[in-house]
Amino acid sequence: MGISQMIKKHNVTIATIVNNIDWVITRAREIDLDNELFLARELDIIMKHFKKLYSFAGVSSNNMFWNLTQNPIRVIHIPISEGRYSTIVNPKVLKLEGKYFNSIEACGSVPENNYMVKRKPYVSISGYTLEKKYLELEYGSKDFDGGEEPVLSSYYYNEWVVQHEMDHLDGITVKDKGTLFDLNSLMG
User: Fold this and answer.
1) What's the rounded Cα separation, in Å, for the pair 139 and 124?
2) Which CATH number is 138's domain given?
């Protein structure tokens, strides 16, 4: 089945706080790896399509409203190394460490705004691949000191993208966690 057919079959749309807010703010549920992995595999194809279409830095199931499940499932598509992405099933944050810094972020679920969000410079997560292989991933540095000034480029660094998508799985958006930020204020 092609991506267009899959999108039509599952009635997939981008979930935003304007459209499908209940989906965006719902805590995603874990899936049964033995009986529901097919859900993650179908969602993987859809998330990759929308990531490319909208140039998202990462994607969570809360970003994609579809009719196959009644609630979002714990699935994210995130960077795992420079230029490489992977879909992680049932991810959990193991550690968040380091001094908070101010990250400037945009979000497809909160369209047309930027937010300043406090993030940690080090995160480790665990989860499963689509082949049910357990893995642990580490991002960033515990010693990074971003200072008080907003960090515009932070949106592109893996550790912050991971935290952003993990927040989504808990029903938390940048609007909930951050403050509205005018990018023009950085320009002077």
Assistant:
1) 6
2) 3.90.45.10
